[in-house]
Model the fold of this input.
Amino acid sequence: MTVAMDPRLRARRAEVARRRSWRRIAAAGVIGVAVVVGAAAWPLLHSRLLAARVITVTGARHTAERAILAASGLEGHPPMIDVNAGQVARRIEALPWVATATVSRRWPDGVHIAVTERSPVAVAPRAAGGWAVIDATGRILADVDTAPATLPRLDGVSTRGVPGRWLPPASRPALAVAAALPVALRAAVRGVAVEGGAVSLDLAGGVTAQIGAPSQLRAKFEDIAAILAGAVLPPHAVIDVGVPQSPAVSAS
Done:
């Protein structure tokens, strides 16, 4: 036996079907509009209208802005949409003086490059003459004809590497000591040497300070400063601060 459907139920089902149909039509329309807009916007995003034309650089003192621009790959003013901030930063960080680079897009046509540069801590003699300026990691920052008076030399270290390369790992203990030198002691230090992991300082007046391992440096530097302030040492005197707070002075 066939049971007749309630007209109200039939009407409700028809209304639900109509709403579903309209929702499908509306969704298809939205997708269609998005495709059309995207297709129209794509050429615009890759056009010269939205190119990286304004490049600003901050934080660079030792690195020329033109060198940063050349390394960035932005000299050709590529479309903003194609600027990969991470890749640009890595290319800039390959420059000798650059420690970190942060690259940010500033729509519609700007890219800002913020650079943090490395700090020199010592110089090493060049095999072919002149000096290489070195940072605490052993990275060669620059070649100079005359060693800056404010930087100690690394004794026993000779480099043939070009700026951007690193000194051998054996030089790291001496670099750690050079980087940690306090301002009050730095002027008295002429050179820093390392042998078998033990570090020594060549001080003004021909005095040598035996540091030993590059640890507890603050206490060792305080011992050296106190001895230098308390007496005039003869040439070739040796200050041994290998054991902090138990320094010894001898004449070689």
